[in-house]
Each structure stands twice: as structure tokens, then as C-alpha cells.
Amino acid sequence: MSRLDIRELVIDVPGRGDGSALNLRVEPGQVWGVLGPNGAGKTTLLHTLAGLRPARRGDVWLNDRPLATMRRRHIARALGLVFQDRQDGFPATVRETALIGRHPYLSPWQMEGGDDLRQAEAALERLDVAHLADRLVSTLSGGERQRLAIATVLTQAPALWLADEPTNHLDLHHQTAVMELLAEQAAAGRAVMMCLHDLNLAARWCDHLLLLYPDGKARWGPREKMLVPSSLERLYGQRLATAEIDGAPVFVPVR
Ligand SMILES: Nc1ncnc2c1ncn2[C@@H]1O[C@H](COP(=O)(O)OP(=O)(O)OP(=O)(O)O)[C@@H](O)[C@H]1O
């Protein structure tokens, strides 16, 4: 189990004022959604939480240790990041790519073993890309690449998932399958924080929300308190119509 403590954190968005310092805790079992318009800083936040870029101010603690003092290998055993954009520069197969998820557990130059391979193949199966295992990643469609990226993090088996628009490029069925997977991870005691553009996915699958405004201001809390139509309209500068389907609110943009 992993816990992320975000203390007085100001992310470093170039040319922008500090806005609100973030003070929140992502606990095992929770699913956090990060919402905000383009450029609000969602990716910057996730990369800061993963220790990939420095904060302007404040700290991130992973399991009672400051992230900044931890070795990358130890961070990678606890925390997995699904990137929004990927550069698949090396000519690797789908199976080889999923196996990268095991690298935090191997010593330098150690080959993956049978258990690693089984874990990667189970993840490929789960993300519905096992039939592509021998294909070069460069030949995959956008949605197939996205599912492979998630399968690679599933192979890594982190206790804390950070996912940057995990449903990017996915058709409706695979969007639901990925959200079910992330919900299952949380139900098994892991923690999830994901950036989303789809308010309806956030309303259905997240239990906590962080709203990031373009000026750096932020609000966060339990879903019920955050999904207020007037504040979502302010967040996006977009009028919304609201309904309820299947017990969850549904938001539709209107002119
Ligand atoms: N290296 C950089 N140099 C200058 N500006 C940057 C840099 N990296 C990010 N930014 C700017 O910081 C802001 C936040 O970017 P970020 O990618 O975090 O936004 P986002 O909320 O994830 O957006 P989107 O919804 O479009 O993915 C943007 O205005 C972006 O142009």
C-alpha cells in the first residue's frame, strides 16, 4: 500500500503565479480525478508527483519519505505513471515493452525471468493486447498503444497509479474496461490519481476530485462536493446541462 502526501505544493508552470498551494493526501483505496482546462497544469502536476520535475514550492512525500530523497528504483516500485504522450523510439515488440514494467525489480543487466514474463503476459491479456505481443510497437494504432502503456504499468504493479488521461484514444468499451481496471486497483488497496477531460467518467469512477484552474487556483475534496455544475462551468468556461443516469450525474455541454 502506498500513500502520497502533497504538502504546500506549488507546481512550476512557467510564467504563471503560484495560485493555491496543494495540501492533500492520496490514500490507499482512493480514486482521484484531476480536472481542468487545457494548460491548467494537470500533466505538470502528475510529473511533479512522480518526481520527474521539481516543484516551485512544497513537498511530495511517498509513504512517509520525501520523494526528493528517494532513489528512482524505489520510487518505481511504489509509483507507476501512465504518460499522456509516448515516444516509442526503440524498435521494441509489445511483449518487450510490457516487460519494461519489471525493470524496477531487476538488477542491472539481469534478464527477466518466467514470473516476470507471466506477469507481463497477464497484463497484456487484461488490456486486450495479448494477440499483438510479437508486433512492433510502431505498428500499433493509437488505442492499442494506449492499452499497452497501461499494461506496462500493470506489469510494474505499483501501489500508486498516476495516469494522465488514461482513456485517450480508447473506444467506449475499452474506456470502460480501463476505468474498471483502475477501480479494481483501488478496491485492492492501491491508490489512483488520474487526469481526465471527460466529466462523466470522473463523476462515475472517481471518489475524490481536484479542480485545477488556469490561474493556478485549485479546489479539492470528495466527488459529491466538487461536482457542482456552477463551479464546473466556471472551471471550463462552458455552460453545461445536467441529468442523472444510473445514479450518476451526467454533464453535457450546451451552447
Ligand atoms: N517546458 C515548458 N516550457 C514552457 N511552458 C511549459 C513547459 N511545460 C509546460 N508548459 C506550459 O505549462 C502549462 C501547463 O501544461 P500542462 O501540460 O501541465 O497542462 P495540462 O493541464 O495537462 O493541459 P492539457 O489538458 O492540454 O493536457 C501549459 O500552458 C504549457 O504550455
Automatic annotation (TrEMBL):
It comes from Billgrantia endophytica. One of its GO terms (molecular function) is ATP hydrolysis activity. The keyword Flavoprotein does not apply. Residues 4-239 form the ABC transporter domain. SMART domains: AAA. The lineage of its organism: Bacteria, Pseudomonadati, Pseudomonadota, Gammaproteobacteria, Oceanospirillales. InterPro entries: AAA+_ATPase, ABC_transporter-like_ATP-bd, ABC_transporter-like_CS, P-loop_NTPase. This is ABC transporter. Keywords: ATP-binding, Nucleotide-binding. It comes from the Bacteria.
